[in-house]
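Hello, quick one for you while I still have it in my head. A protein chain has come my way and I'm curious about its shape. I'm sending you its amino acid sequence along with the backbone structure tokens. I'd be grateful if you could look everything over and explain what you see. Here's the protein in full, and shout if anything looks odd to you:
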Amino acid sequence: MKKIILSLLIVVSFWNCSENLKEKGSKEYIAEIKLWHSKRIENLKKENGWLNLVGLLWLKEGENKFGSDKSNDVVFPEGSPAFIGKFILKDTTVTVEANPDVEIMSDGKKITKLILQNDLKGNPTVLSCKNFRWHIIKRQDKFGVRLRDLNAPLVKNFKGIETFPINDDWKIEASFVPYNPPREILIPNVLGMIDTSKAAGKIIFKKDGKEFSLEALDGGPDSFFIIFADETSGKETYGAGRFLSVEKPKQG
């Protein structure tokens, strides 16, 4: 059993929260959390951030014409050309063909026809036309177009994210109990699909005299990834649940 530190600031409403609460903690801890929030906002506003997402458009096998005209198989938002081109899905390969009068760019070069790499390997082919960007994602046996609008109203009108007051009562020492071997767990995603993930172990901690445990998914070489929900989910907090990264315990 190894010790790790959970910074559970984001779950302060797990028990009780009031807008009138003041920040509680050392200057260093408060500065650390505020820096994390600042970086989060910065990442949301980036070209590959979440704020400019305007569509997830699934492809059918064969030819998929796309553009803003409603007669297309895949309809892009207003402001994009009426008929941009077509996606061709054959088995597990997606190819894009641009219409002659439309400029589609990839890596700064105009393309007419291109086989597209999806996101499974972490480096998908990104295409652009005017202020729109898109790439292909693969989820189980389905292929879709993840579409961004760099001029999306949500980006322009974004006012920040409401947060609970910083409180170092939620910086908690926890114990990590590894699973040997790791366990496979089923997790529903926002697309209505069931993903299989590996739990490296269990994180156990106490709060107000009660013991709690959270499944620790492998989040990479240095961290665990935790997903959970509580009674505030979908009301005071994000409906899909809470997402928390935790540093792995030091070896030895």
About this structure: The helical segments are 27-45, 153-156. The CA atoms of residues 106 and 127 lie 5 Å apart. The chain has two domains: 2-23+164-247, 53-156.
